[in-house]
């Protein structure tokens, strides 16, 4: 298992170090891994004048999986757009062809009180959001700001999905649904947007290949509402890039802390980019207080989806559950009566419980 490790910026190096610790602990039990580190984001800009240095992209391409921390920082906000850390992220996703973003929103019983919603609304919550990642209005051409006929500035972005792009993400959604409760809700805005009318048509047509999956459709505005009204009605949700961006952040807050949520982005051959759902949290960087669990759980997803190592994935996930049951908390999930520990101590606690 060749894994490229890209810590990035802010809390990235601290949280990635904990996930590496966990992987190395599994390796002492016989799992063969090869880890190699490189720069991305602001760290890439500082080291090589590019948020995605050529050496980093080469390493990512030569690896089976990439474990990434986070990118971004205030000190880079004034750089020209192509040099900003976030461009490194967009480019590596595009370069690796990872079009399927999996974001689970799972509520651990011990953290039910961390959610802003009532415990009875969220307890037992286990949603998997499958978001298309390389198409849609974020990448569609034409785009830009131009002067229109009336001589005023006009911003343009283009929502675009080809049939093959929809088919390949729908396939990922159906296959994940088959491994879970066989229920999938496709989210679109087919009443207004032709692009998503095509999306609905193709997802519906592909249901013939997966007749065991119970498919439903929902407009994105309703889905946003239902996620806070009755989130447990959902199991797998599949949607396009922009809707998925928004809904997955919304779903993440159902669970209380963004510091708990992993993500996986896969290509057609299950090669993947694994990263926590949160950003680089510059406000708490360097203090050893960040929650590393989202990154550690991303490493578990890596074992499951890229390396087909269900045993290793489950060991990590169970260790995280045990640590929470033992009452250990980083500051973001701390509540009275639990024990506040540092980022590195949380990594150690997970290793101990493997
Ligand atoms: P953020 O996710 O970094 O932080 C939001 C809030 O959540 C902050 O208060 C932060 O302290 C807290 N937080 C986040 N992760 C945490 C963790 N693991 N443990 C404890 N607390 C945590 O989002 P932001 O503040 O909007 O953005 C900060 C920077 O991160 C920006 O430069 C942004 O562009 C970048 N960003 C990067 C990614 C990524 O790398 N995938 C994603 C989002 C934002």
Q: What fold name stands as the CATH topology of the largest domain?
A: Isopropylmalate Dehydrogenase
Q: Would you identify the CATH H-level superfamily of the largest domain?
A: Isopropylmalate Dehydrogenase
**Count of individual beta strands:** 14
Distance between the termini: 19 Å
Q: Which kinds of small molecule does this entry bind, naming each only once?
A: nicotinamide-adenine-dinucleotide
- Uncertain spans: none
Architecture overview:
The chain has 12 helices and 14 strands. It folds into 2 domains: 187 residues, Isopropylmalate Dehydrogenase; 151 residues, Isopropylmalate Dehydrogenase. Helix 1 packs parallel to helix 12, helix 8 packs parallel to helix 9 and helix 11 crosses helix 12. It is 40% helix and 19% strand. The longest helix has 17 residues. The mean pLDDT is 95. The protein is of the alpha/beta class and 354 residues long. Bound molecules: nicotinamide-adenine-dinucleotide. The site of nicotinamide-adenine-dinucleotide has 22 residues, from helix 4.
Briefly summarize what is shown.
The protein has 354 residues and is an alpha/beta fold.
List keywords for this structure.
binds nicotinamide-adenine-dinucleotide; two-stranded antiparallel sheet; 2 domains; Isopropylmalate Dehydrogenase; 14 strands; alpha/beta
